[in-house]
Model the fold of this input.
Amino acid sequence: MTAPILALEGVKVAYGRALVLEIPSLDIQEGQILAVIGPNGAGKSTLLRLLGLLEVPTEGRVLFRGHPIPARADLLSLRRRMASVFQEPLLTDGTVEQNVSLGLRLRRANRAEVNRRLQEWMGTLGIRDLAKRRTRALSGGEAQRVSLARALVLEPEVLLLDEPFAALDPPTREGLLADLKAILCKTRITTILVTHDRDEALALGDQVAVMIDGRILQVDAPERVFVTPINEVVARFVGVETILPGHVRAVSDGLADVEVQGWTLQVAATLTPGERVLVCLRPEQITLFPQGGLPAASSARNQLRGRVIRHLPTGPTHRVTIDCGVLLVAAVTRQSWEELGLADGAEVVASFKATAPHVIHRA
Amino acid sequence: MELIWQGTKQAILLLVRGDPEVLGIALLSLKVSGTATLLSLLVGIPLGTSLALTRFPGRNIAMSLVNTGMGLPPVVVGLFVSIFLWRSGPLGLLELLYTPTAIVIAQLIIAAPIVTGLTMTAVQQLNPRLRLQLVGLGASRLQVVWLLLKEARLPLLAAVMAGFGAVISEIGASIMVGGNIYRQTRVLTTATVLETSKGNFDMAIALSLLLLLLTFAVNWALTWVQQRGRTP
Done:
């Protein structure tokens, strides 16, 4: 197997006495699109600066294609094989064309090559009509397209994206996200995307790293990170809202009885009796029925009676909190909410299948 | 009032006729202050840029010194340059006192902190992340500096104007190190003082008008460069 294109070994970054980043090891394979997600202040941007050779770690080393980066080396030639895009477009005063061609001119590319790539990438990003426009006259979305074009036109070996969509309004963001997805699928440029937005990570990443408090807690395929988070912290960050501590009472035929505050839940997981666990449920895995209105044919093994204590409309769904002795959070479509005649204080049955929960072992 | 009116009328006549003495003085002013400003750019822009972009112990003190230097009283500069260039002074051997070169040196010392200080501010008020972005696009250290200065050209040209404005209008240093010698070191400001003290108001007004005109012309040219391609 060839060496990863970028790797970190025993890296620590400290600013003064504060340790902001600690990553024992991280490999990024050629062609991989790694989405690093985590809350603000988790150290994601610091990680990106390390990988882009824009910052030197306090301890440990960065490897590019298997070669350690010497501490005081001339990094220019290596940096010129990468390109960064930040949350702000950070364009220079001048025309769109001048901005997109900037990196090529810095590399003293010949004019024919500059023009060829300029046309190609401005076309790909749909900004060819803006070529002569001054950057001060661009909208936020246009400016970010220019910023992306300015990086992609370099056809870098590594593309580093630091929250490139965070400042855009939702429709603009979705348009640009779709375009970037298509470009990355086609070119397979090794990409590291840093974002606090789970949807962006799911849309773009073929690997997702969850970073919290300067540490990478889990690196996995996106669906695995979101469905089977390794611990409670990751679970909470990836959107698991119901996390119930319990212990395993009995196991039979791959079904475990887990006791959670007076309820016995049936969970399809390989567990051993006596084990202490966390039962994790995403809102969309919980279905609500009015009291007594449960369809007889329901295959859901777990049915908990409770009362709606609050609901929060979020776009097409309501996030509904139910008190069943334990608190559950369910996502209910607006339509169901109305059809079922639900309201705060309503008596309901919350149900989920035995295969729905993800179980985390507790010490 | 009569005095001003008569003086102005005479002054305009002098200017229209192209009085060789007046023109000679104006030309020398332009040459001396222009040279001093250009030299102050060579010192001030690199110094201001490096103060803005590098971190080192004592940086704040260095910056405070520069900022203090922006208000350096010309007479103090004149005094110390005189002492240095005095026949028995450390640089007396060069025999520069009472030459246009001495005025250039004094004016350089006045303009350099102004250009340095304003360059420093100009570069510091750029988005700090722009520098990282330029490095991230593969700019070398020199390319980064060049691009940042280009980005800051609006306040940088203001620095040039402020530097030039300070020295063309300055009198204390010019008179002390230049000596206001007829046809040698007499510049617009020193000549104006002399003519006023002699009661030659027409000449003094002519010189003042020329000083204003010259300052305006230079600033107009710089403003034109500064505002090129900008829409409000």
About this structure: The interface with chain B takes residues 49, 52, 54, 76, 79-80, 82-84, 86, 88, 90, 92-93, 102-103, 106-107, 134, 150-151, 154, 160 of chain A (CB under 8 Å).
